[in-house]
């Protein structure tokens, strides 16, 4: 089933997105740029990312990794040089996780930034590929999902920019894998992200009545 996106979900922020995909639900809100008189970054905006969750999402290491990756991606993708002495704040709330949390957080953040009308050098999206102990890539599952605790060998999250799909913008891996598994995962992720970019554009065209051309 394709992910579902709801732009403008939070009325109190400049941009937001509710992202739901097969048991993984994330809300991202964006505020700014706001003036920061004491900012040491005089020539560009500072990106701040706050990650919060509830329920079974208690892996502090996983939260820190997602926070760090999101900040690095946004610092590269957002045209921060247009807003000196300001701060752009991104708030991420993970409501549930069925194995694609990093992918969901990255994709929801991109849509929230677009909803906030912040200028991006390029739009980005992510795809997570998971391998079990053997056989072909599978959809990620969590131990809390109906008691399904099938062992996984590795997980790979790839981030792409729309206009340079042949290159990997960022990558995070967890576990051990072969070179062939990496190649298969990369190709699968690139194909999926190509479709994701199309769905992003269709969503924006429909919501804001844009000219497709």
From TrEMBL:
Its main location: nucleus. One of its GO terms (molecular function) is RNA binding. Signal peptide: none annotated. GO terms for cellular component: cytoplasmic exosome (RNase complex); nuclear exosome (RNase complex); nucleolus. Residues 7-119 form the Exoribonuclease phosphorolytic domain. Transmembrane segments: none annotated. Pfam families: RNase_PH (PF01138). Keywords: Exosome, Nucleus, rRNA processing. One of its GO terms (biological process) is nuclear mRNA surveillance. InterPro entries: ExoRNase_PH_dom1, PNPase/RNase_PH_dom_sf, Ribosomal_Su5_D2-typ_SF, RNase_PH. It is found in: Nucleus. PANTHER family: EXOSOME COMPLEX COMPONENT (PTHR11953), EXOSOME COMPLEX COMPONENT RRP46 (PTHR11953:SF1). This is RNase_PH domain-containing protein.
